[in-house]
Structures are given as C-alpha cells and as structure tokens.
Amino acid sequence: MLQVIDYSERAIAVIGTERGNQEQITAMKAMKGKYNPSLRCGKGWVFSKAKNGAEVAEWVLKYNAAHPDSAPVQPQTTAPVQPAPQQPQPQTIKQAPASVVIPMVDDADELEGAPF
Prior knowledge:
The protein is of the alpha+beta class. Helices cover 23% and strands 15% of the residues.
C-alpha cells in the first residue's frame, strides 16, 4: 500500500513502493518524481506540491483501491537531531601590535637628523 506524506513545505513523498514494480516506477517517473532512498520517512519518491501534488495523491488513491492486498506501510520515525552541546571557547585577549610612526617629510634634507 502506498502512502502520501506531507514531506516539507514544498514537497510530498510517496513511500511503500515495491522494488522492481514496473507499473509504479513508470507512473512515478511520468509524474516527474525523484526516487530518494534517504528520506526521513523511509525510501520513496519526492514530488513538488505546487506542480503535481494533487495528481500524485489522486494516482495513489486509485492505485491503492486497485491493489487492496498490499501491506500497509509505516513511515520511519526518527527523533529530531539534537545539536551537540557547544563547549565554551576560552576567551583570549589579543593585544594590538605597537604602532610604528613614520614621519612624513617633504624634503630629503630634513631626514638627516631623524632618530631612525
């Protein structure tokens, strides 16, 4: 049994497809689906909601009605990934390097007595 999942704001996913079922594969490709074995809800096909979400949902309903003997699919549930706790970074104070002052002169004669 196929199941339509509201996958994200812009996409739906169809899970429960049978490996090697040419009817399903042909239909999913015709509706411009992309197969993704790494979905959060399990292996399945991803579709744009805006472009063909209604068409896909309608096809899944018809397919499930025509194939009532297929086993229901339970979407994989994964716990939300928690970010690793951040270690406090030691505070380092950087001193600015001592500035060097270069006197500006107009004439090379003024440089003769300069301390540098």
